[in-house]
Amino acid sequence: MARTTPHDPPPSEGEPLYRRIATELLGELRDGTIPPGERLPSERRLAGHLGVSRETVRQSLELLRRDGLVTTDRRGSHATLPGLPVETPASLTFPVGAGPAAPGGVARATVTWEAPPPDHAEALRLAPGRPTLIHRYRYATADGQDLRTAVTSFSAVALAEVEELTRYRDRADGTAAAQLRRAYDWMRRAGLTLHHRDAITRLANVPSVRVTRQVHDQYARPLEITDLVVDAQQDALVYEFTLPGRAATPDADHGPSPVRRTADAGSRR
User: Fold this and answer.
1) Closest by alpha carbon to 212, among 199, 203, 224?
2) CA dist., res. 134 & res. 225, Å (int)
3) Percentages of the chain per state (helix, strand, coil), in multiples of 5
């Protein structure tokens, strides 16, 4: 029998209270209330939500952990039930618009440590002039004509939480190649749930369009912002998506799939 505190309701006959709480948590995991990979609330919040003590919550989580349904790292506990992550690598590529180079195409990516553009600093809640990690992506024809260029600025939150990004600071001189294709995977592995919004605008007086992607985590903290410029005369944007399982408004954070060339359009979950 699990030890309870005076704050716990009396357990039902023959079943420890922590097992009943573990079953209730498992139900929330299975019905999608807590999505796969999502960080669970703190023990204190779970105790308040379930009306039991933190000790009972701790024992319940340990039971789920032994069954492989929850995992714990330095940032807390995460649901690990099988299922699609909130954003799959196929549906959210870094940077937006990146993809395999077509025959004759040339792609290059570098990083620098400098102050971001003012609009990036504002979106990332950075003080004016404060430097951060800047990623630049260029996709061009063999003769050097730009087809796509993207500039990404990372927030202080992303650099503090994602160890792999922090490592790039020492080599952010703008000359060495820097492939951050797995940036979103690194963020997820750090326990961040990714939400993104893509906005497409036409640029005045030039045959190009701009795609601005902003990514934030489950606490609405900004992680990165990317501005992608595409030569609309020589390149095409293809956005494909499927409707989510739950009702969503057109302004929901889960927007269309990433930009891809027509020949290899991406897909949404």
Assistant:
1) 199
2) 10
3) 25, 25, 50
